[in-house]
């Protein structure tokens, strides 16, 4: 066994997981407001810079969040298991969050979709709702 729950490798993964959640979720909620203010103040060019910066941070952070969270489950010494409903639902929401992030704020190396601005606003709202649901689920761990 490499580590058990609350050993140093687990704690490092926990720190990486929480840090990436803070960066990703923070950027997801702040970027739309910054883009609107930038568009009003300086035009579309600055709003594009905000959106490009968000795309460079959000998708990689959400990817790291899920990978670190899955690794923590593996290192938890059967304290946590993917058979637990909160982890299964969390994994499904994580995949949804990745898809929504790739649609709304696609990184330059992962441009899969060509979506109009009106649809991006709708998908951005779904992204915010999914992230809020994920934070509630991961905080209260329903079903443990």
Summarize the structure.
By secondary structure, this protein is mostly helical.
Could you characterize the architecture of this molecule?
With 144 residues, the chain is mostly helical. The chain has one domain. Helices cover 77% and strands 0% of the residues. The protein has four helices and no strands. Helix 2 packs antiparallel against helix 3. The longest helix has 35 residues.
| Shape, per Cα inertia axes | elongated
Count of distinct structural domains: 1
Number of helical segments with 4 or more residues: 4
Mean pLDDT: 91
User: What pattern of helices and strands is seen along the backbone?
Assistant: HHHH
Point out poorly predicted stretches.
none
Radius of gyration: 17 Å
Beta-strand percentage?
A: under 5%
Main sheet attributes: strand count, strand direction, barrel closure: none
Classify the secondary structure makeup into a structural class: mainly alpha
Which percent range fits the helix content? Answer: over 70%
Separation, N- and C-terminal Cα atoms: 24 Å
What's the count of strands? 0
Keywords summarizing the entry:
144 residues; mainly alpha; 4 helices
Topology:
Layout: H1 8-42, H2 44-75, H3 85-104, H4 117-140
Helix pairs in contact: 1-2, 1-4, 2-3, 3-4
